[in-house]
Amino acid sequence: MFIHRLPSFVPSIFPSLIWDKKADAKENQVYFTFDDGPSPEITNFVLEELDKFQAKATFFCIGKNMRLFPDLAQTVYLAGHSLGNHTMNHVNAWKVTHEAYLANKIACDEIFSELNISSIGFRPPYGRVNRAIMKKATDLGPIYMWTLLTGDYNSSLSHVSITTNCLKNIQAGSIIVFHDSQKAYPHLKVILPEFLAYCRDNGFQLSAL
């Protein structure tokens, strides 16, 4: 069974990570985030859909993709969305040394600097961290996790199961993960308009982190 919403005890184990923005609940804000881009066809689709609803979002970008598509990264930034670091090569923290992981994160930071784009913080690929990273958490900047994981990259899920299991759990302050990647696009092109319409119809304000 795919877990869209983590058990409530998980954030309490890692309190230094950002799991939601409940402090903004009085604003009725919800935060859509998109991992693994930028990717021309998919990121442009996301930007068009967000614009239809006058919504802002956050894109956690892979450095190598920013290097391949710098103009698209700039387009996202200039449209008023925020961008964050998702490592240079989508590195799994459980499969490399801490030194190698940190170097990969720093390499992505350097791409942000080259493009003169401000990074709002870091999201670890796969949501995976290790003890060494947690000890260095303050050096990595804000580390954003999530409240809801859509699973749009998972071909074993259906569009209906994603919307059914996620929409009912959206609350003010929720951080929701989508992916602007080729792998996620079959689901994303269906569910993103539905999520946007649901938030509009239920009075949620879609903001960038």
UniProtKB/TrEMBL annotation:
Instruction: State if Nucleus is listed as a keyword.
Output: no
| EC category | hydrolase
Please provide, alphabetically and separated by semicolons, the GO molecular function terms listed in this UniProt record: hydrolase activity
Q: Which InterPro entries match?
A: Glyco_hydro/deAcase_b/a-brl, NODB_dom, Polysacc_deacetylase_ArnD
Q: Has UniProt tagged this entry with the keyword Metal-binding?
A: yes
Q: Give the NodB homology domain ranges.
A: 28-207
Listed A to Z, the keywords are: Hydrolase, Metal-binding
> Which EC number(s) are documented for this chain?
3.-.-.-
Name of the featured protein: Polysaccharide deacetylase family protein
Query: What species is this protein from?
Result: Aquirufa salirivi
Lineage, broadest ranks: Bacteria, Pseudomonadati, Bacteroidota, Cytophagia, Cytophagales
